[in-house]
Design brief:
With 302 residues, the protein is of the alpha/beta class. The protein is built from seven helices and 13 strands. Strands 1, 2, 3, 4 and 5 form a five-stranded mixed β-sheet that branches. Strands 6-8-9-10 form a four-stranded parallel β-sheet. A two-stranded antiparallel sheet has the order 7-13. Strand 1 and strand 2 form a beta hairpin. It is elongated and about 75 Å long.
Length: 302
């Protein structure tokens, strides 16, 4: 096991992240911090990294990002969400190779590390069909960069056009064409998560899979219940749900009725560690920048 000492750093310590005024040595055994001592007091390490006049802090957690959007930076700023989606997720997709998918993911992972986020939650859209080779390229990029990652697949079982505001004002033939666009089925989505979790459960892997239904207006009640059942079956599998709902104020997401809202609340309420990612509403502006770190802190691990 590699032993590395981070020499002479200032640090934020404990659950309160208290600033330690004296410089410290931090000993890292493999992937764990095993000792924190006064500076220049740890000598039995295979490698030494001089952090004199540097501040050592726990990593940020980027709790919601989309690696499939990293190539879109600067293309379509300041558009309403539904218009913006048509530019970055057009009906005729741009086909990327596994190498391009790998590089696209690595760009965001590297930027996350450089801006202080050591853990990312990637809500990855897989497109019109599931391609396991492309999914594996995403997972491998996170492995190689060294960031901790939870990867979900933005799962939904309703046509996206049916969740647009004022969709009933669109031409009927246009709506029918949009409904007919290829997309994975609910069974295919759940099968993908189950398959990937067999080797990448986040309890045992730094890069793991997440049960991630998309915004609840994009999911049927039956699909949300099936997602909760899969998370229970996988025991301890984390869940992320994206939506325009503030649980504290019990606001109903756009396009979701009272019955669906109750399903969502029961779905979230039964899970420990479940994350609700607040979504922008249809009137909010959307930026195509790559990643934003949340105010949460990661554990003090490399």
């Amino acid at each position: 096991m590699t032993r590395t000492v981070l020499r002479g750093a200032y640090a934020l310590l404990g659950s309160g992240f208290d600033f330690e005024r004296r410089p410290l040595d931090v000993l890292v055994d493999g992937e764990r911090i095993s000792a924190i001592e006064p500076a220049n007091s740890i000598h039995d390490a295979g490698a030494v990294i001089d952090l004199t006049r540097h501040l050592l802090v726990p990593g940020f957690i980027n709790g919601h990002m989309h690696s499939h959007e990293h190539f879109h930076r600067g293309r379509t700023e300041n558009l309403p969400l539904e218009l913006w989606q048509h530019y970055v997720r057009s009906p005729v997709p741009v086909v990327l190779t596994p190498r391009q998918i790998y590089l696209r993911t690595a760009i965001g992972a590297l930027e996350s590390l450089r801006t202080g986020a050591t853990c990312v939650v990637d809500d990855l859209a897989v497109g019109g069909a599931i391609n396991r080779v492309l999914v594996d390229a995403v997972l491998q990029a996170y492995e190689d960069v060294g960031v901790r990652a939870l990867v979900g697949f933005a799962m939904m079982d309703r046509p996206l056009v049916d969740t647009f505001p004022f969709a009933d004002t669109l031409p009927h033939d246009l709506c029918e064409r949009l409904r007919a666009l290829p997309r994975p089925t609910a069974t295919e989505y759940l099968g993908l998560v189950n398959e990937v979790a067999a080797t990448r459960h986040p309890k045992t892997r730094r890069v793991g899979v997440l049960v991630a239904p998309s915004a609840p207006q994009r999911c049927s009640q039956e699909f949300l219940v099936a997602c909760a059942g899969l998370a229970d079956e996988l025991v301890g599998e984390p869940v992320a749900v994206r939506g325009a709902l503030r649980l504290r104020h019990r606001l109903i997401p756009r396009g979701v009725g009272v019955a669906e809202r109750d399903v969502v609340l029961r779905f979230l309420g039964r899970r420990r560690g479940c994350r609700w990612s607040p979504d922008s509403s249809s009137t909010a502006r959307r930026s195509s920048s790559t990643s934003r770190a949340s105010s949460s802190w990661g554990r003090a691990r490399p």
